[in-house]
Design goal:
The complex is a heterotrimer of chains A (about 170), B (about 775) and C (about 280). By secondary structure, chain A is of the alpha+beta class. Helices cover about 30% and strands about 15% of the residues of chain A. Chain A folds into two domains: about 15-90, Beta-grasp domain (Ubiquitin-like (UB roll)), CATH 3.10.20; about 100-165, Orthogonal Bundle (DNA polymerase, domain 1), CATH 1.10.150. In chain A, strand 1 and strand 2 (about 25-30) form a beta hairpin. Chain A is elongated. With about 280 residues, chain C is α+β, with helices and mostly antiparallel strands. Chain C has eleven helices and 13 strands. Chain C starts with 7 loop residues before the first strand and ends in a 13-residue tail after the last helix. Chain C has a five-stranded antiparallel beta sheet. In chain C, strands 10-11-12-13 form a four-stranded antiparallel beta sheet, with helices on both faces. Chain C has a two-stranded parallel ribbon with strand order 1-2. The chains are: A alpha+beta (about 170), B alpha+beta (about 775), C alpha+beta (about 280). The interface between A and B is large, with 58 and 55 residues.
């Protein structure tokens, strides 16, 4: 067991470096700053949305080292050295990704506020390359809240993306 | 199936009636939407509110010194300071200031009246620092007993929430009567009585409220980025409350993360932030957090009804006597308006002959009453639950009772006893079609067999009408405030710009208006630019709400596009030295006799008009302005049906099938229609099974997080089967009708009726809307309740 | 830890602690992040069972073939914890040390008679039987200078079946009541049973075969229902917004019977899987 470090002033900025959507980014953050706030405020990646800031709604879901995670439940200092992907990183060379296209075809979303969290959660699911039934998809998405759609269009979009065999 | 649009001037309809992809999605799916929380202005400050921990208390003192000295704090305003900067409400159309009592301030000063009542505003360099400083504001309270139910509020001995109101009743009791009530009760074979109630629930858009207000001391202008359902309404309210000339206020709105009625006008907190920006000369931003949203943004639906129905043995419902009590929460809001709508709409599509309706609105120490998707929905809940109670009492099938009472087109009097005409309704057709779709006799056999195995299946129906906007009424001409204004312009690059006062917040208006304009004008829908969200460009109009969009904005767009097309063809005829009747616009080109072989590009035409190449006296402004009164309009409506199974060991409800047969007129974009229907149904199912805004006896709010206010998830909402009925066309041109509210209005009674049907053998009589598992076990007597 | 006993908090996955910080309900002066200590993230064999480092992510444990094989009850219960995006950060040890009385993992380790290894820089390691670890709402036998480092779960006994059943308001919510059950069936009669309930007291509530009247009897619906009734009768569960004490007692009654039944079926090799009342 290592000896723990001395406490750091809550206002002292700690340097961090991470890869975001493939680009090396660095910053200096207060220990209490969440990853979500770091992405939105310091990196101006406002595509990631905050819907509850207590880990329930899933709107802020991003991929951390390939796994979906709530960026409101992570401190920016915890992802030092990690690989983070956000909704801004989905499109390929400016074109909608297969997942984004499937969602557009199916009218997946309405107001768009929950969209980033759903897309990143679904992206992780697609990358697992598992065959999933509609019921399993619903279960996998049950940690993401949407108030507009009643979910059917989103589930259809996922089924279409799964069916196309796309993983990105 | 959807009908195709009539042939427009530009040729056959190509876009209206098709589920074209949404233009909005190109930015939203890429994370490039711009919501109010994404706005960054130079020098922007961040606001946070100090809020009351008590439901009802006198404010004895507010000490802000420590907070003012805290790190990063720029200013702290207590209620008194804000009261000198802004008024609590506005006397504008849609505002809540009727000039009468109660008197109160924008932030609390003398008293706090609900948990979360804002007491002071902290403005700092970051939200983290603003929240830190809020903890340093010391407020001394003297607790008062809380009034937490309408029943308590109606007790004359309850402590007054507003001293100048002379009690805790803010409206009523009022009574209105229609038809020969005494006669219907005298003729009745039976009077069925029930006390039916709805519970408190709320909008919960995924994006809360928010504002970035920026006052420029040099020009005296206030620029506001808002999340609002109508930039004009927000602008008028802000100007009135801050004492600014309306021309000095500009309201911008970008993408909006849902609203469902919540974001109309402007809230107390948002006005306070604008006042702070004006006082400080710097931009001030406030983004509501989820706790604030759930606790104080507003709640709805908490209404109870004493109902007596005079019925015949055959199931004919002759007359109803209804007493409504609304628990309207703390500050004045929408409740009196809702009372009027509930009263008017309660007969629904049925041939009710008489109604007596009285209503009282009480003030309580809870969140204020706001509009929530179908604010008057209680009329459908009460009526449709009552129909089933009547059926049970008479031993008839509820579907049969509905068919016996529903109005038949062509048979007078085709109007509700309360006045509204029932022109064009397809309620009967929707009931008949639903009966076919579910094969009711087969379901009843299956239900009986399941019961023998101790399994409880149920079927429930409910029928509704949605005034979206409702048919033209000969006795009430359209209110000037309800007219839809629109401007359309052909730009120099050939783009068609549509300026609307509508403010989409998820409904895809940028796409649907483009579809209509494109068909009528003769261009590709992607060539149409729908301009929303800027009060300096918006025509007059209150914005999006009340399911008015499809008819009103759709109709205004249709007429504006036709007018502009005529104008463009006139200009083209001048340029081409031919007659306008020989020309048409097809696929973005002017074609016809006299036009160049490949057609004349609209951009070329616009450029020529701009360069003044036209004869003197030609109106070369390629712009049209129209005002639309809704034409003949009409109802949306239909029947929903749920098939459920209740696990009587755990109280869990499984929705086996959920079906919708509906009529919203001519569909502009079926995928968008179905999205609205499904979204509304999801909220309605949530209300019954999951969602409740709960308070304890001291007025503490219990549902202040997403762990306690339970929104439905993907595993809670079933697949929803939808069938669209062929519509009765009432207007020669515009038969698009709104579809935003119907799902939410009718899903709760549909599901409650199905659950009641499932539990009927166990003796449960259901007269409430919230039926979580524990409550169902109480109702069947498995546990005490 | 030694230095910051008063105002420090250990940060494991953060899926419970960070919300408390965000809501300003916890305000530690120091957060100690254990994520960089590699040895706390080990998952491997231990005697016939498994050893799980306290910082093993729940999602990693859930996907581990070793966990499925050696601790099927744990594998079953992990799927009930919140949602994938929470489990990808949340840790096995974090959930145990947080000791939420509604959480799944405390009931699992108590049912399986796991040993919890804890360590302090001053005094080194000690081992606490899972049954002695949970001492109340969000309280454990951990001393202020100790952290949980490892969970040792014995391998499944012969002819033993396991099941985890729970009822929550929605998929992924904390359950109102959950039941972890292990039943051994030999030659047509029950040779051992342990079960543990969540959500009904300030800590997991354990019951064993003799208390349940199950020892030596043939597994059938009647005896499991009787066991459910016997346990429910002695519970004094809490009331909250989502369910009254009486409702929780009813759920306990029903779920105990259901969990015992499916565990006994699995003991006999019938691997039918069931989820409570999840809408199809």
């Amino acid at each position: 067991m290592n000896e723990p470090p001395e406490p750091i002033s809550p206002y002292e900025a700690i340097p961090i470096r991470l890869r975001v959507n493939g680009e090396l980014r660095s910053g200096a953050v207060e220990p209490r700053r969440t990853l979500a706030d770091f992405l939105r405020e310091e990196l101006s990646l406002t595509g990631t949305h905050l819907g509850c800031e207590h880990g329930v709604c899933g709107a802020c879901t991003v991929l951390v080292d390939g796994e979906p995670a709530r960026s409101c439940l992570l401190l920016a200092v915890q992802v030092n050295g990690a690989e983070v992907r956000t909704i801004e990183g989905l499109a390929v060379a400016g074109e909608l990704s297969p997942l984004q296209s499937a969602m557009r075809d199916q009218h997946g979303f309405q107001c768009g506020f929950c969209t980033p969290g759903f897309l990143m959660q679904i992206q992780a699911l697609l990358e697992e390359r598992r065959a999933l039934s509609e019921a399993e998809v619903r279960e996998e998405l049950s940690g993401n809240l949407c108030r507009c759609t009643g979910y059917e269009s989103i589930v259809r979009g996922v089924m279409a993306a799964l069916g196309s065999g796309a993983d990105g | 199936m959807a009908e195709r649009s009539p042939v427009g001037g530009g040729g056959a309809a190509r876009f209206v009636g098709a589920s074209v992809q949404r233009g909005e999605d190109l930015r939203l799916l890429r994370g490039q939407g711009r919501y109010v929380d994404d706005v960054r202005l130079p020098g922007m400050l961040h606001a946070a509110f100090v809020r009351s921990p008590l439901a009802h208390a006198r404010v004895v003192g507010v000490v802000t010194e420590a907070a003012r000295r805290a790190r990063g704090v720029v200013a702290v305003f207590d209620g008194e300071e804000i009261a000198r900067l802004a008024r609590p409400r506005a006397s504008i159309p849609g505002g809540t200031d009727d000039g009468g009592p109660p008197v109160y301030t924008l932030l609390a000063t003398d008293k706090v009246r609900l948990v979360g009542d804002p007491v002071a505003l902290v403005v700092a360099e970051s939200r983290y620092l603003a929240e830190d400083a809020c903890e340093l504001v010391e407020v001394r309270y003297e607790a008062l007993p809380a009034v937490v139910s309408a029943e308590q509020a109606l007790d004359p001995k309850s402590p007054p929430i507003f001293e100048d109101l002379g009690g805790n009743v803010i409206y009523g009791p009022t009574t209105k009567a229609y038809g020969d009530l005494a006669g219907t009760f005298a003729r009745a074979d039976l009077v069925v009585q029930a006390k039916i109630s709805q519970h408190r629930q709320q909008n919960v858009p995924m994006e809360g409220r928010g504002i970035v207000a920026s006052f420029d001391p040099e020009t005296g202008e206030l620029l506001v980025h808002a999340a609002t359902q109508g930039v004009n309404t927000t602008r008028a309210a802000l100007a009135a409350q801050l004492g600014l000339a309306a021309e000095k206020v500009r309201v911008l709105a970008g993408d909006i993360g849902g609203s469902f009625g919540l974001k109309f006008g402007i809230s107390r907190e948002e006005v306070a932030c604008a006042a702070a920006s004006r006082a400080l000369g710097r931009p001030v931003r406030w983004i509501e957090d989820r706790g604030e949203n759930l606790t104080v943004s507003g709640q709805a639906r908490e209404e109870s009804f004493e109902v007596e129905a005079a019925v015949t043995r055959e199931g004919e419902i002759l007359g109803m006597r209804v007493q409504m009590v609304v628990d309207a929460g703390a500050y004045p809001g929408l409740a009196p308006m809702v009372v009027d709508s509930v009263r008017e709409m309660i007969p629904g599509p049925y041939r009710l002959q008489a109604l007596e309706f009285s209503a009282t609105v009480a003030v309580t120490n809870k969140a204020s009453y706001v509009a929530y998707r179908g604010p008057w929905a209680a009329e459908t809940f009460v009526r449709e639950r009552m129909v089933d109670l009547v059926a049970t009492e008479l031993g008839l099938d509820p579907l049969e009772v509905r068919l016996r009472n529903v109005a038949r087109r062509g048979e007078p009097p085709l109007r509700m006893v309360t006045g509204p005409p029932l022109a064009g309704i397809t309620a009967r057709e929707s009931l008949e079609r639903m009966a076919e779709l579910i094969d009711l006799p087969e379901f009843r056999r299956r239900q009986a067999a399941a019961r023998r195995e101790g399994r409880y299946l149920g079927v429930g129906f409910a029928t509704y009408l949605e005034p979206a906007p409702g048919p033209r009424s000969p006795d009430s001409p359209p209110d000037p405030g309800e007219l839809e204004h629109q401007r359309m312009r052909l730009e120099a690059d050939g783009t068609l710009s549509v300026f609307t006062a509508q403010m989409p917040h998820g409904q895809g208006h940028e796409t649907t208006l483009a579809q209509i304009a494109a068909d009528q004008f003769g261009v590709d829908w992607e060539q149409v630019r729908v301009v929303v969200g800027d009060s300096s460009l918006s025509p007059a109009g209150f914005g999006t709400g009340g399911s008015r969009f499809a008819t009103m904005a759709g109709g205004a767009t249709l007429h504006a596009a036709r007018e502009l097309r005529s104008k463009v063809l006139e200009v083209a005829a001048q340029l081409l030295d031919t007659g306008p009747e020989r020309l048409a616009i097809v696929g973005g080109l002017v074609v016809g006799e006299g036009a160049p072989a490949g057609g004349l590009q609209l951009a070329e035409l616009a450029a020529a008009a701009e360069r003044g190449l036209l004869p003197v006296g030609t109106d070369s402004r390629l712009e049209a302005e129209v005002t639309f009164d809704g034409g003949e309009s009409g109802w949306s409506g239909g029947t929903h049906c749920a098939l459920v199974e209740v696990d009587c060991d755990t109280g869990r409800v499984r929705v086996e099938r959920y079906l919708v047969v509906e009529d919203c007129g001519e569909m502009i974009n079926p995928a968008i229609v179905e999205g609205q229907v499904r979204g509304g149904v999801a909220q309605g199912l949530g209300a019954v099974l999951l969602e409740r805004s709960a308070y304890d006896p001291d007025g503490q709010y219990l549902s202040g997080s997403f762990m306690d206010y339970l929104l439905p998830t993907a595993t809670d909402v079933p697949h929803i089967e939808i069938e669209h009925l062929e519509t009765v066309r009432l207007d020669p041109d515009v038969n698009f009708r709104g579809v935003g509210e119907g799902g939410m209005i009718v899903a709760p009674p549909t599901l409650c009726n199905a659950i009641a049907d499932a539990l009927a053998p166990l003796g449960a009589r259901i007269t409430e809307q919230h039926l979580p598992p524990s409550r169902l076990l109480e109702l069947i007597g498995t546990i005490g309740g | 830890m030694q230095k910051h006993q008063e105002d420090g908090r250990v940060l494991a996955g953060g899926q419970s602690l960070i919300p408390l910080l965000a809501l300003r309900l916890a305000r530690p002066a120091l957060l100690i992040d254990l994520a960089r200590i590699a040895e706390l993230a080990r998952l491997g064999e231990w005697e016939g069972g498994i050893s799980i480092g306290a910082m093993v992510r729940q999602r990693v444990a859930e996907r581990s073939p070793l966990v499925r094989q050696r601790a099927p009850l744990l594998a079953a219960a992990l799927k009930f914890i919140a949602h994938p995006a929470i489990r990808s950060r949340g840790t096995v040890g974090g959930s145990l040390a947080h000791a939420d009385p509604a959480a799944e993992l405390p009931a699992v380790v108590v049912t399986l008679e796991a040993e919890l290894v804890v360590a302090s820089s001053e005094r080194g390691e000690r081992t606490i039987p899972a049954a002695d670890f949970f001492s109340g709402h969000y309280t454990t036998a951990l001393l202020a200078d100790e952290i949980l480092t490892e969970i040792r779960i014995p391998g499944p006994g012969p002819s033993t079946g396991f099941s985890f059943h729970e009822v929550s308001r929605r998929s992924g919510d904390f359950a109102m009541v959950g039941v972890a059950a292990a039943v051994a069936v030999e030659e047509g009669s029950i040779s051992g049973a342990r079960l543990c309930l969540t959500g009904v007291a300030d800590r997991p509530v354990l019951a064993t075969a003799p208390e349940l009247g199950l020892l030596g009897v043939a597994p059938d619906r009647g005896v499991f229902e009787a066991a459910g009734e016997a346990i429910a009768a002695r519970l004094r569960p809490p009331t909250d917004l989502h369910g009254s004490a009486e409702y929780r007692r009813q759920l306990a009654l029903v779920l105990v019977a259901r969990a015992l039944r499916s565990a006994s079926q699995r003991a006999r090799g019938d691997n039918e899987d069931r989820r409570e009342g999840a809408p199809a």
